[in-house]
Amino acid sequence: MPNIIVRVNSLTTEREDKTQISVNISEIDSLFSHLTTNTPFGAPIIVGVIGKDHATILKQWLVYHGSSTNQSRWQLKFFIKHVDEITGLCDAISQLTDIATHLQDIRDAKINGCHRISLFDGTLSLDLHIGDTAQQLREIVSQTDIKFKSWLITTPTVTEHLTQTDLWQMAKLSHVSASIVQVTPLDIPQHTYLASMCDLCGFEFIALTGGKAETDKELAKTNATQTLNRELALKERCAILRQQQESLNFNPLTPASSGSIAVIGGGVASACLALSLAERGKSISLFCMDGAPGQQASGNKQGAIYPLLTPEHGTLSHFFLQGYLFSRHRIHSLVSQGYPIDHDFCGVLHTGHDARSRARLQKIIAGQPWAMNIAQAVTTEQADAMAGISIDEAGIYYPLGGWVCPHQLTQAALDNASSITDNKLYFNTQVTAIEQLNDKWFLTAVANGNTTRFGPFDNVVLANGRHLTDFPQTRELPISGFRGQVSHIPSRGALSQLNTVLCSHGYLTPNHQGLHCTGASYVKDAPNNDYSHTEQFENLDKIRQSYQGDWTKEVDITGHSARVGVRMVTRDHAPMVGCAPNYDAIMAAYQTHQHTKESIDYWVKTPAPTHQGLFILGGLGSRGLTSGPLAAEILAAQMCGELLPTTTDILTLLNPNRMWLRKLLKGKALI
Fold first, then answer.
1. How many angstroms separate the CA atoms of 608 and 244, rounded?
2. Range 348-399+480-569: architecture per CATH
């Protein structure tokens, strides 16, 4: 877009803190149309918005979207310093009740970082980057040419929000022809300051303001005398970007190859990945060993959904909180579209069962000033009132938590994905081998008793739960399977009054279709998935160890009704999301690069080996309903080469290579 000054409404004379956007809305429409026309088909149009009045931009985008016949994908990335600014966004989108409610939840949760909201089958990805703008800009990872097309400045005092360092961070993330658009009235010094910084960093500068004749003349003069050294600016951009990429050598974020995608697995993770990819226009071939989706670890009647908090609120806790909110968003979105998903966000009451667990909970609740909609300390009396039955324990209450039917969520996500793109679903098809030949992947599978070969595929995603390590390429992943038996208890007597999910030594759900779910057992590397009388009694004992009320005597397990699944668990409780590490190549390099300062330097500077076109989505453990949808969204963004909706520390946490690279980067032995 050329350097132009667009005349619109006159400059406001209001005080700075009361100034609102006063541009001609048609000019914002023109900008949206220009970005649509000049973006390659299929690529997302990424626009950053920095300032205070994000609501006006969102409102106008909704108007533009409603009137436009071009259904391009958009990513609006709003940089919000203070969560209270989200209130305006809630008002702007009030007609979409579930989205407005989700925005309120994000506002009230007061959790910094990136929060993603998907609207209109992925036509719009709305990212809220909450916190210090400079820090949020530094945390965004760019690995490909899919970058910001434009930045809108919606604050009347630019110098409060943007420094030269910030502009260079924005430049690092931006397309070579990206523009910075000033959409609020400014005086001449402010325009001159921003225009000169844009000149330095290689941006086109556009001011959608106007007014007095002398103002326009002065701005035109400023534009006319710009001396943009684009070549120098681009070199500086590349240097900053290269520096970030080299800092992530241990965690390759390589996109998928263009072309076909095979996803192995049929649970929550693979279904959510199918949906996230479909929202990006990607079709998949999904292979599931069962006759229907959600029959393995995702097959429970009810699964609890609540965050994993830690006293220090580190990266793990932060990821699970963001995943917790995103999972709620996914469920609400699918339900609002008419997909049947039994669920109830009735809250989760977390209590201790012995001195150690009680001390742990007390440490968690006292460790941080948690927002009230995230975690509340409750007394014994409050716990009894919340649960509707006698708990006789103090603890932590998670107001936004609850339960959901995992296999219905799985089915709904797959159905929604298939309504957007043309997916191929292969059930009763167990993949027994994967092989790469000439950069293409082939699958060997047993389907209805017959061995069949599928392929070629350009990319393969392993989201197959307990079968994740079945293949030579992934056999050495440091991840373990834990069998879990969930018992089904008839709802009767006082137990039927339970109205929130209980979590203690095990978990217990409210009545659903005449049954409660409780458990689960936790057995590493179990030899089979058969029903266990021992584990059924263990689940009963867990309830009676955790709670002393008379209602525990009414818990009846004599019907021997239960379900067994295997959950894949990592030592640090974080999922594995990203490129599949090449263990053989790592070990080969390790033979000559170990236990010295030079070896540490080698592992810092050398990209960690991976299997080209092979990706991992696993290790969701017992909190897959909380972490799975966001983990799938992050992987889909990586595979499509997009800016990732998370921070570098979370990407490091999820890196499938992390167990090995943590040691290698410290010069420690692998074995």
1. 15
2. 2-Layer Sandwich (3.30)
